[in-house]
């Protein structure tokens, strides 16, 4: 009778009634109480999307001759020197990056190379430039029209170029730009800066 009363009490408490061995073998782990969030009066629970970080920017690739158009701008003169800017524009449909110096080879009307002695200057020095479609960059050019060494004083000091082959930084294929600024003396010496935003 005592066992039945005890078993009945255990049933009321939600415990299984069985042998003492079964009760010893059964263990119950405590659980944390459930928590609920009550929205403000009249409100509703709105799910918050996970944070994805900053929006991605389009990847840039190097500017190539096929994505650029170039020209040598107007010329300033002083003390036998000539100054101009070699300007390139991104004619592609995606942004591209320039970082460094352009190659620059003077050519005659038939596309044959003429004496060219390209010298890099660090004014300004190279920095990466991202060009969105339509944006421009420039490099400074300086050359002399004064004959030097054994160049003739009468007449042109060097053959007159008709164009130039310009190779974007870290590329191998050139683009052709017109040259209408006369001979380049000093064996075709041209000082060129790195590209900078124009």
Automatic annotation (TrEMBL):
InterPro entries membership: DUF4232
Q: Where is the DUF4232 domain?
A: 63-195
**Alphabetized PROSITE patterns for the sequence:** PROKAR_LIPOPROTEIN
Chain segments carrying region Disordered: 19-63
List the signal peptide residues. Answer: 1-23
Q: Does the keyword Signal apply?
A: yes
Show the ranges annotated as biased composition (Low complexity): 26-46
Keyword terms: Signal
Protein name per the record: Putative secreted protein
Pfam families noted in UniProt: DUF4232
